[in-house]
């Protein structure tokens, strides 16, 4: 019988300590919000950074364009590889080529509402994709050489069992996305225990930034506030205004990811701010940055937010944005990360909103100028 635990591809590798004296990171999801901030952080720290990008008919590298250099003209420490978490062979090939010392698995279909419409795809990429990457590590025999970070999420908590939520709170996911990430969480724990891999779950609560995708609620709000202020949009349509989230800044959170992989032993950590705020407060504070006061009238589907200065309705509820099952309240307890990793978020809620709204105002103004 063959040894099921032996690597399939025998690479000529130095012993783990010597191998890890290089600093080579591989990031799946490098074109996303977190991937771009993490790549910047690791380059600053002297890493060679490799990223997996998907083939797309349109340009999908906007967030990392400033890091990229034409390798013919100015070779640098930032390289992109075509790949996909649904393609095992491709992952094996990239690993054998790059020989990373740290892998950050950030790639995912990350939109909770979309996961109800694309449940199987989300399970494939977010759940099985994690398994494929872990198995690729074993296939090339890197399981004792490489450190692995899994982008786990507060969506694992889902239905409120207790607050604040910590590493010991039971999971109860409420979406196909949450369920797929639950598989990813446990397969990461399982490979750590079964094969002695250095593998960590970062259970990250919502984190935002000016680079946040425009269909997530915070960025949708900050962008609409800027456009409404400039007269380019009349009204913002939202779903559940009462959902509460623990919102931090993505830049702080990628630093926590890196810290997790620098510990003597692998473990799982919550990163959160320890504060929670409803969506409607995010709306009020975003408009307030632009000098607009929002007050609410009506209830349920008829509820609307109006501009106190003009009386104009600028926010309406659209049931299209409701989810078949909602996560009502997320509030994280980052005590373990603060104690063990020395991690602490730097950006508070109000500063996050201000940064996002001001960035969108600048972007929206420059688009006006472009068209004039
Ligand atoms: P984004 O949606 O901004 O980025 C997702 C990234 O994954 C993109 O680079 C995307 O590529 C890539 N991707 C999507 N599908 C595949 C695939 N099949 N194969 C390879 N790559 C793929 O997410 P964030 O940056 O916000 O989040 C990063 C990770 O952290 C995700 O796994 C997310 O689920 C998780 N997370 C995020 C939190 C948050 O609040 N932001 C909180 C907790 C966890 P492309 O650009 O081509 O679409
Ligand atoms: P979330 O983020 O589902 O928490 O997942 P999102 O910003 O999509 O929703 C947050 C809350 O706002 C409510 N909401 C709306 N959401 C969106 N997208 N659009 C709307 O118009 C709208 N109106 C109200 C939602 O119902 C929800 O309650 C994010 C993702 O980054 C995940 O990948 C990550 O794992 C979790 O955060 C932690």
| Largest sheet properties | 7 strands, parallel
How many extended strands? 15
Report the total helices.
11
Runs in which pLDDT lies below 50 for 5 or more consecutive residues are none
Shape category = globular
Question: What is the topological layout?
Answer:
Layout: H1 16-19, E1 24-28, H2 33-44, E2 48-53, E3 78-82, H3 88-98, E4 102-105, H4 112-117, H5 119-139, E5 147-153, H6 176-195, E6 198-204, E7 207-208, H7 217-229, E8 236-238, E9 244-245, E10 248-249, H8 250-260, E11 269-271, E12 277-278, H9 279-289, E13 294-297, E14 304-307, E15 313-317, H10 335-341, H11 349-371
Parallel strand pairs: 1-2, 1-4, 2-3, 4-5, 5-6, 6-11, 7-10, 8-15
Antiparallel strand pairs: 9-12, 13-14, 14-15
Helix pairs in contact: 2-8, 3-5, 5-6, 7-9, 7-11, 9-11
What does this molecule look like?
It is a single chain. The strands form 4 sheets. A 7-stranded parallel sheet has the order 3-2-1-4-5-6-11, sandwiched between helices. The chain has a 4-stranded mixed sheet with strand order 8-15-14-13. Strands 7-10 form a two-stranded parallel sheet. The protein is of the alpha/beta class and 372 residues long. 37% of the residues lie in helices and 16% in strands. Strand 13 (294-297) and strand 14 form a beta hairpin. The chain is globular. The model has no long low-confidence stretch (mean pLDDT 96). It has 11 helices and 15 strands. It starts with 15 loop residues before the first helix and ends with a helix. The chain binds NADPH dihydro-nicotinamide-adenine-dinucleotide phosphate and guanosine-5'-diphosphate-rhamnose.
């Amino acid at each position: 019988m063959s040894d099921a635990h032996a690597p399939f591809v025998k690479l000529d590798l130095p012993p783990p300590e010597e191998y890890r004296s290089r600093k080579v990171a591989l990031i799946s999801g490098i074109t996303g919000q977190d991937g771009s901030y993490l790549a910047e952080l690791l380059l600053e720290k002297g890493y060679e950074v490799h990223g997996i990008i998907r083939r797309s008919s349109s340009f999908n590298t906007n967030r990392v364009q400033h890091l990229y250099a034409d390798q013919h003209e100015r070779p640098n420490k930032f390289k992109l590889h075509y790949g996909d978490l649904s393609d095992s062979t491709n992952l094996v090939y990239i690993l054998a080529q790059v020989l990373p010392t740290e892998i950050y698995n950030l790639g995912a279909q990350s939109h909770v509402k979309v996961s109800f419409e694309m449940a199987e795809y989300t399970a494939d990429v977010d759940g099985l994709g994690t398994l494929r990457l872990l198995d690729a590590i074993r296939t090339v025999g890197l399981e004792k050489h490489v450190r692995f970070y899994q982008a786990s999420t507060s969506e694992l908590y889902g239905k409120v069992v207790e607050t604040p939520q910590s590493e010991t709170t039971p999971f109860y996911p409420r979406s196909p996305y949450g369920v797929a990430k639950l598989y990813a969480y446990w397969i990461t724990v399982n490979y750590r225990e079964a094969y002695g891999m250095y593998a960590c779950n970062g259970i990250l609560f919502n984190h935002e930034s000016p680079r946040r995708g425009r269909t997530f609620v915070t960025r949708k709000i900050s962008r609409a506030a800027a456009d409404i202020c400039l007269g380019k949009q009349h009204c913002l349509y939202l779903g559940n205004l009462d959902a509460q989230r623990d919102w931090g800044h993505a830049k702080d959170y990628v630093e926590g990811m890196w810290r997790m992989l620098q510990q003597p032993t692998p473990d799982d950590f919550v990163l959160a701010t320890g504060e929670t705020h409803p969506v409607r407060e995010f709306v009020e504070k975003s408009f307030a940055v632009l000098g607009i006061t929002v007050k609410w009238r009506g209830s349920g589907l008829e509820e609307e937010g109006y501009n106190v200065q003009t009386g104009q309705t600028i926010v309406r509820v659209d049931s299209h944005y409701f989810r078949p099952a909602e996560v009502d309240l997320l509030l994280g307890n980052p005590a373990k990360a603060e104690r063990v990793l020395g991690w602490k978020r730097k950006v508070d809620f109000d500063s996050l909103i201000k940064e996002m709204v001001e960035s969108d105002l600048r972007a929206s103004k420059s688009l006006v100028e472009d068209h004039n």
